[in-house]
Amino acid sequence: MSKSKLYILSRGRIFECAVEEGVVWETHRKSTPGKLAFNVLKDEALGFHEGDAVRFDYDGHKIFFGFVFIKKRTNNRIISVTAYDQLRYFKNKDTYVYKNKTAAQVLQMVVSDFRLKAGIVADTKHVIASRVEDNQELFTIMDNALSITTQNTGELYVLYDDYGSLNLRSAKTLKTDILIDEESGETFEYTTSIDENTHNKIKLSRENKKTGKREIFIAQDSGNINDWGVLQYTDTVEEKENGKAKADALLSLYNRKSRKLHINKVFGDVRMRGGATVGVQMYLGDLTVANFMMIETAKHTFKESDYRVDLKLIGGDFVA
Q1: How far apart are CA 144 and CA 123, in angstroms?
Q2: Which of 2, 18, 48, 245 lies in disulfide reach of 10, CB 3.0 to 4.6 Å?
Q3: What is the DSSP secondary structure assignment for residue 306, as one 8-state letter?
Q4: Distance CA 171, CA 105 (A)
């Protein structure tokens, strides 16, 4: 019995396809559709088209549901296929002007406009006073709404497609009990840095329309300023935003080293997907890494006897 089951649904017919070893499924934390790449063996009966639905199950797990976007032939018998999940349609551009909506409500608006299918959509709570998104990718529109939400609440959300349903969930709910250690993969590369998204001083300003004066909100960590020098982040505060709360939330997000871990050929687990969190415990010579890290990219390769994942992880709770 084959562990891999791949079906293409074309114009009312269902084909169970014979596929070559090594079906690849790739997901990212944000702004990238989930992708399935596979080689299908052509026979007399098989006929399918761009836009047809694809379903892939492995060892009883529902892995992927999406649509054929690319077909490529290099010989008579094999067709290379690239399919994407619903997030592919977030590459569409549109103009939205909205008022007093949460990021979740922005998503529901997009879902209904583009005839997509939603699943679990968390209440993102923070109400965005007003936004003009002029001719932007839907990815950008959603990303902006979620960034504003994170900056004001400290809560991180992940938008992903789960087997044909778009889910928007708090990153906390995507924590797994998977533990990665130095035995887990074949090769790894671990980087820590204060060079990219590290800020130990936050300075926000707002023009007070009534008084004509500028209000300043500052949050800083003097200990880290002594260690690293001043790494300042500046931004403005909208009229209805709470400047102090926003400055504090930004400091808690950015006042840390960024960590990156790339680890190849980890033993496969279908829960490892972009936006999910795994535990990492590794002894790297002079230091021990023991913390939760978030999956930036997961690339799964499914074979009959062997199933491996290449992971790009980012540190702790947040890296933009």
Answers
A1: 16
A2: 48
A3: -
A4: 18
Q: What's the N-to-C CA distance of the chain in angstroms?
A: 43
Q: How far apart are CA 319 and CA 293, in angstroms?
A: 10
CB proximity list for 30: less than 8 A, separation 6 or greater: 139, 143, 158, 159, 274, 275
Instruction: Give the distance from CA 118 to its chain's centroid.
Output: 16
Contacts of 1 (CB under 8 A, 6+ apart): none
Per-residue CA distances from 169 to 64, 89, 124, 177, 282 (Å): 18, 19, 9, 18, 28
**Do residues 205 and 215 lie in contact, with contact meaning Cβ atoms separated by under 8 Å?**
yes
| Dihedral pair phi/psi, residue 60, rounded to 5° | 85, -5
pLDDT value for 239: 82
Q: What percent of the chain stands above pLDDT 70?
A: 97
Provide the sign of the torsion angle of the four alpha carbons 268, 269, 270, 275, taken in this order.
Answer: negative
Please list, in sequence order, all residues whose beta carbon lies within 8 angstroms of the beta carbon of residue 119, skipping any fewer than 6 positions away: 162, 165, 166, 167
Q: Give 279-302 pLDDT, tens digit per residue.
A: 999 887 766 878 889 999 999 999
Contact 248, 255 (CB under 8 A): no
- CB atoms under 10 Å from CB of 186, counted, come to 10
> In terms of Cα–Cα distance, which of 7, 269, 90, 309 is closest to 186?
309
Q: What is the rounded average pLDDT of the residues 147-159?
A: 91
